[in-house]
Amino acid sequence: MRVLVVGSGGREHALAWALSASPLLTKLWVAPGNPGTALVAENVGIAALHIERLVQFAREHAVDLVVPGPEGPLVAGLADAMAQAGICCIGPTAAAARLEGSKAFAKQLCNDAGIPTALWEQFTDVEEARAFIRRRGAPVVVKADGLASGKGVVVAATVEAAEAALDAIMRDRSFGDSGASVVIEECLMGEEISLFALCDGTDAVFLGAAQDHKRLGDGDIGPNTGGMGALSPVPGFDPGPAMDGFIRPALAEMARRGTPFRGILFAGLMLTADGAKLIEYNVRFGDPECQVLLPRLRSDLLPALLAACDGELGRFDLRWNAGAAVAVVMAAPGYPAAPEPGSDIGDLSAAAAVPGALVFQAGTRLDSGRLLADGGRVLTICGTGADAAAARAVAYQAVEAVPWTEGIYRTDIGVRSQYK
């Protein structure tokens, strides 16, 4: 098999790392990749959103399977373009990717399919939205309807904060055209869980669950980020009811609409006092959740992806390693508001040599042989072990072995007391 991974972050490094171990693999590329993916694959200088160039490359190099990492190319039609070229792409069509591309679309699907979710309203007029918030009160959640790289969501504790979010999203267009419409939701309280399933349009296979740590600071304080770390598996979480309540009904409704979903379906759930409710759907692996799921996967990832492409998941199963994984994100100073690039990360070999540790690169670049920070979330340090405590100890031992003094990170990833 000749495989092309699309993307440049820690998630894509983890995907390339997992795929590189497959005995079915003969050639692996990552476009555009990063210095970490170059350790396990050949990087290709094509941006993830340059769909025509990606299709041309896949044709010229006889690529058998395309594995998209981020959501942007999928919403823009990468899977459609690859299908037209006769190339298998394990991702949804643009029509099916609306599950992530439009929050209002996903919420309406929940209503139509009877999937539990927060109460919501959609607005295209800022003054109407403002009047609704003043009637509704706070706390409330304000979301840009379109893609916003995981940053278009504001959990507002006060009416004033919600109105400020409206102005930023709808008037100032902080997220461009994604803010032309907003979804305003009730604020759900409880523990947040990330549930993943591999789907072939009809059937779904459980692909793991994780608990992301969104806030910047210890104790779950500070601004929301793309994720500062993750834990898998989630103690006490039974995926069976969640698959039946949130994944299979969504697949059935998408098929009923004539837009069957194939690829990775990510259901963000809130475990409330009234039961689990959907926060949002994503159409790809999470980051950093991917970095704790794949090290736990005992099965070969490549044939699983092929089975989804071929519509054969009804006869497919995945096996998992015993134990746990904990991932700690190391970010650039100033993240998430204004990350500062250019600091010297140094040699990562000591961290990678810690038994049970894996080092995934994201926002990095090489300059005259020096590894430099070049993004917000720069590294994901993953630890594996017999249980969460052991995995956490490995992860932080490896973090301490990273010589990057400017990197910031949380010290409490995997400590569940923060959610109680």
Write a concise keyword list for the protein shown above.
D-amino Acid Aminotransferase, Chain A, domain 1; 13 helices; Dna Ligase, domain 1; globular; alpha+beta; 21 strands; single chain; 4 domains; 8-stranded antiparallel sheet; Rossmann fold; 420 residues; 5-stranded parallel sheet
Structure description:
- Helix 6 (103-113) crosses helix 9 (239-256) and helix 7 (126-136) runs antiparallel to helix 8.
- An 8-stranded antiparallel sheet has the order 16-15-10-11-14-17-21-18, sandwiched between helices.
- It folds into 4 domains: 2-93, Rossmann fold, CATH 3.40.50.20; 125-180, 2-Layer Sandwich (Dna Ligase, domain 1); 191-315, ATP-grasp fold, B domain (D-amino Acid Aminotransferase, Chain A, domain 1, 2-Layer Sandwich), CATH 3.30.470.20; 324-419, Glycinamide Ribonucleotide Synthetase, Chain A, domain 4 (Alpha-Beta Complex).
- 29% of the residues lie in helices and 28% in strands.
- The N and C termini lie far apart (46 Å).
- It is built from 13 helices and 21 strands.
- The protein has helices spanning 10-20, 51-60, 72-75, 78-84, 98-101, 103-113, 126-136, 159-171, 239-256, 289-293, 301-309, 349-352, 388-400; strands at residues 2-7, 27-32, 42-43, 65-68, 88-89, 120-123, 140-144, 153-156, 182-186, 191-200, 204-212, 215-217, 221-224, 229-232, 262-272, 275-282, 324-331, 357-361, 364-367, 370-373, 377-385.
- The protein is α+β, with helices and mostly antiparallel strands and 420 residues long.
- The mean pLDDT is 95.
